[in-house]
Design goal:
Blueprint lengths: L17 H14 L1 H14 L12 E8 L14 E8 L5 E8 L4 H18 L1
Antiparallel strand pairs: 1-2, 2-3
Length: 124
């Protein structure tokens, strides 16, 4: 991963084809598997530090990062960057994240993560 940035084509030969792995990953994303995994891991990580399973407070932060060469949102930034907006609990464990063009300000990106965070909390 350090050398290739986790490219699908760089999957070791002992695993299924990169197309099969990518298709499975996309299927998991459509059905919410990564979110459920993160929720379960967050609950387990909060237990040893005497926190309730569900966070009651969160912080929102954003960071501009370099966009991939293969496309995706880049905005009007000469450096071809994107902006990640993330909500995290007080233990700095992610709750919800969203990717925007670099030109999206923090106040404009927050409305995309707050409703998702509240929806997940109601769903439990």
């Amino acid at each position: 991963m350090l050398g290739t940035g986790c490219q699908w084509r760089a999957v070791p030969k002992r695993f299924p084809s990169s197309t099969s792995i990518q298709n499975r990953f996309c299927e998991w994303c459509r059905t919410g598997v990564p979110e459920r995994m993160l929720d379960a891991l967050r609950s387990r990580a909060r237990y040893p530090v005497d926190r309730s399973q569900e966070p009651t407070a969160a912080a929102i932060d954003s960071r501009s990062v370099k966009a991939t060469q293969s496309g995706g949102p880049s905005g009007h930034d000469a450096a071809k960057r994107i902006r990640r907006h993330v909500t995290a609990d007080v233990e700095e464990i992610p709750i919800v994240s969203a990717v925007h063009e670099a030109s999206v300000q923090d106040r404009d990106g927050a409305p995309d993560v707050i409703p998702e965070m509240l929806w997940r909390r109601r769903r439990r």
